[in-house]
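Fold this sequence, please.
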Amino acid sequence: MTPTDPVRTDAVPDPWAGAEAAKRRRKRIWVPHVDAELRALWLRVEAARSRGDWDDDPAAETIARGVQELVARAVRAAYRLDPIPNRIVNWWRGTLVEQAYRNLHTARAQMIDIMTADELAAEIPGAVGRAHAELNRDDPRCLTQAELWAMPLARRRAVLRRLLEDVYESADMKHAAYRSFRNSILSAAIAVILLTGLTAAFTALHPTAIPLCFDAVDVTGTGQDTGADLLNCPTRGETSAPTGGDVVLVALIGMLGGTLATTLAIRQLSGSSGAYDVPLALAWLKVPLGAFTAMLGLVAVRGEFVPGLTQLDSQEQILAFALLLGFGQQIFTNALDRRARELVGDLPSKAQQVEVTRPDPVLGTRGTGTGTGTGEPVDLGTPVPTFTLPAATVPASGVATPGSGAAPTTSPPR
């Protein structure tokens, strides 16, 4: 398209108009959030078009149409209109949530090219903050606000757009890693559930296959032979033979221990507004793993594998050890809890507090903002804009006197 080409006036259809039926469906927790963001972008484009910001700029109108098309794609994905994947496949791969957020992020980045000068100025602090939160502090892409303001307007737009694209790409990759971690935990949970269920079913049918009973101790001290070999089992004490209910009871008690461990682990895990529920996945793993470790632990004690512990004297002791062993799986899954906390902490959040290095107000350096000029000089190129109020008096030092109503001035490096 050349500057002489006519501006396209055909508007992108409102994507929410065809989603009325989809809105009545049960929505995931992330849908209202992304829907609000998409509506805000759509309204900003429509408002700018109503003001006539791009009447003489076909390129800007093309970008605006592209932004609205990206918004429309995100809306269709959020409301399960396009694509329409299998529910289980979508839940596992995150097809819809990934497409919705990636289109939203791309639309946000492209908005930089059609913003007014005031809108661009308002966007810079947030973009710099997100960059310092998402990228490494030593990353050359982490620019300061002063460096952005020193660029010509066209270059400033291009650099800011590229910066947002990189920031959103990093955020999307973190969400993908979060989903992959959840899927790994669920895969392990499914394997543990199947293995534990098969073991319990087989042992219930063949009670003597896995020994969970212990020899009854002569508590009278007489040492007389009663003529019968009695056993203390999980379901009853001083019985002649194990039953199929022994392994079932041990598994249930172990699951109680696993539930207790899950409660303590989730208490230390901060919540997340993301689409992937890792705490729930950890619960699906820890609870059946408690049953698994309870059964294996009692077998290890019965086989004299634990030094100094070869005999449990009563039914109560057997059940207590099953509970303790079910909780003891926390020793093995604690590493998963730490990894989950790390991933949740890395997820982007608007509430995330970032300490952004600010330019020195006097020397234009990467200092602490105290005016001491302790940082390395920054080549600002063109002078940084000076912000003053007409009715205020700014001292020669460039720092406004408190209560004077003036904003501090920023001088270029000397």
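Residues 181-219+227-346 form one domain. Confidence is low (pLDDT under 50) at residues 1-8, 350-414.
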